[in-house]
Amino acid sequence: MKVTIDRFEGNFAIVELEDKSTVDMPKRLIPEGAKEGDVLSIEIDTDETNKRKEIIKKLMDDLFE
């Protein structure tokens, strides 16, 4: 999904979604240096997700063995 930064208001960036609706996104989630008009990509990092699942599985296995 791609979103476009429309403007900044207080602690939020108002971003426009692909369907042209807007939502407030906390500024802390916006990459440093981003400005109005910049396009951000939001995607699932399946590699990182799988790594974390493996870590959690190992911790659970160690805990319950």
Describe the structure in your own words:
The chain is an alpha+beta fold and 65 residues long. The chain has one domain: OB fold (Dihydrolipoamide Acetyltransferase, E2P) (Beta Barrel). It has one helix spanning 46-64, and strands at residues 2-9, 12-16, 22-26, 39-41. β1 (2-9) and β2 (12-16) form a beta hairpin.
Question: Helices and strands in order, then pairings?
Answer:
Elements: E1 2-9, E2 12-16, E3 22-26, E4 39-41, H1 46-64
Antiparallel strand pairs: 1-2, 1-4, 2-3
What separation lies between the terminal Cα atoms?
41 Å
Tally of strands: 4
Largest sheet: 4 strands, antiparallel
Question: Please, how many domains?
Answer: 1
How many helical stretches?
A: 1
What structural class do you assign from the helix and strand content?
A: alpha+beta
Summarize the structure.
By secondary structure, this protein is α+β, with helices and mostly antiparallel strands. It has one helix at residues 46-64; strands at 2-9, 12-16, 22-26, 39-41.
